[in-house]
Structures are given as C-alpha cells and as structure tokens.
C-alpha cells in the first residue's frame, strides 16, 4: 500500500506541482529529462535496498518486536523509484521507437520485467544454496530470526549499484549518439 501511495503521490506532485512551479519560476517550460528520471529511479532503488538492510540489521539486534511501520521508508523509496524508472522507460521507448512500433515498445517493458523476475529467482536460489552450505541456516530462511536478510539486501544492493553504473554508462553513450546524430542532421 505504501509503495502505491508513494507512486501516486509522486505522479500527482510531479505533474501538478513540481513541473508547473518550476516552469513558473524559470519563466519557461520545464521538465526533468527521461534519462535523468530513470537514473534517479535507479539510484533510489539502490537506496531502498540499503535502507532495507539497515532496518533488517536493527530488527535482528533488537530483543523486542519492531513495528511493521519501520518498512515504510524502504517501501516508499521503492514506490518512488518505480514511479521514476518505469514511467521514464516507457516514455523513452515511445519517444525513440517509430510510431509503427508503439505496441512493440510498450511490450518491451513487460518482457524486461519478466526477465528481471527470473533473474531475481535465480539470485535467491543461489544465495539460498551458498549460504546454507556447511549446515548453516540460509540467509533467506523461512524463519527471519534465523536468516540474514540484511546480508541478502546488501548483495542485491551491490547488484543494483552495478546496474546504476551500467545505466550511467549507457545513458552517456546514448546522449553522445544523439549529439552525433543531431550534428549529422544539421550539417
């Protein structure tokens, strides 16, 4: 619920408050470029996992039970990251693909999410297998007091940070390609 509420709040704030206010202050139309929004979403995904690892470590160290509301910052960041990344990806696909391929571009996001789910399952299986070697409890144990979900979040955070760096490289190549393309059209 908190992820969806954050996502909806972001969409309303961005479209109805941030953009009009920034445009008014700058006296010209304003928007945040789709690549910048996607990159910010990638960074927030990483921060979401860092927050999750820290909260899980705190939960394991406490003797008393913690409220589920401790998950709100992590889940809120997740909703905001999704709002930035998913919408920016769809906008980028629609703006870069030819109009005749609009159905292909809209389905690419679903295909990418399906592949991501398969990769996430693979990572979970590998972490489970490797972490329970030697008779130890799995990091992703069914009993959260025996597992180490904080370690699992750190692993996912590492992959997400690598993904952020790869995204940054791809966006620089994309923007450079656009500059070259623009120079060719102008000359």
Question: Radius of gyration over alpha carbons?
Answer: 20 Å
Compute the number of helices. 5
The oligomerization state is single chain
Mean pLDDT: 89
Shape designation? globular
Structural class: mainly alpha
Biggest sheet details: none
- Give the DSSP E fraction (strand runs of 2 or more residues): under 5%
Q: Total number of β-strand segments? A: 0
Q: Which residues sit in consecutive blocks of at least 5 with pLDDT less than 50?
A: none
Order of helices and strands: HHHHH
Q: N-to-C terminal Cα separation, in Å?
A: 52 Å
Helix content: over 70%
Briefly summarize what is shown.
With 187 residues, this protein is mainly alpha-helical. It has five helices and no strands.
